[in-house]
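DATA SHEET
Item: assembly model
Revision: 1
Owner: S.N.
Input lines:
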Amino acid sequence: KQEVTQIPAALSVPEGENLVLNCSFTDSAIYNLQWFRQDPGKGLTSLLLIQSSQREQTSGRLNASLDKSSGRSTLYIAASQPGDSATYLCAVSQGNTGKLIFGQGTTLQVKP
Amino acid sequence: DAGVIQSPRHEVTEMGQEVTLRCKPISGHNSLFWYRQTMMRGLELLIYFNNNVPIDDSGMPEDRFSAKMPNASFSTLKIQPSEPRDSAVYFCASSLGTGSYEQYFGPGTRLTVT
């Protein structure tokens, strides 16, 4: 059974720092991996989707990498801003079904 | 596009009552997903549809839960009878299809069963 783990559960950094969020999964037979952002009381916003055949995806200050063989993904946020404060969730899809299995998330606080 | 629309945004009901949650997916999207989020269990997939047909309902917790998608622009998730342990945030998401497509989430319905 696929399990997705995100460490740390919470992170607090000063504005301007570069930071890395980690995601690991137990079954490397994934179809793709998605990173989401969730603001308090809101729905999820898709940030990046990495296909299983890809190594990384970039969008603005965000870069996500995928190492399927080791069951790990990282989300790199450059030059963090207070507006980046949110919970970041990773989710893996197994098979061509669209079924996502989520980690518990990392809650990020960027202090001005 | 307005995105995925869910109603109501908040629902408070008494144990034993029927609850119906509604979702309008993004126009043109062929897949629709219902999720539940709780502090203890995180985000869990309940059921998903492809082209209005339920494909996998293995995440539906009990027979008290049912979901329908009568057409491409509307889906409902019904709980009857509701119980306090059903209290959670219920999200609907849609995508162009299954597989390698991003899922777009609605704002969620916060359900409280007293």
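QC remark: The longest strand of chain B covers residues 42-50.
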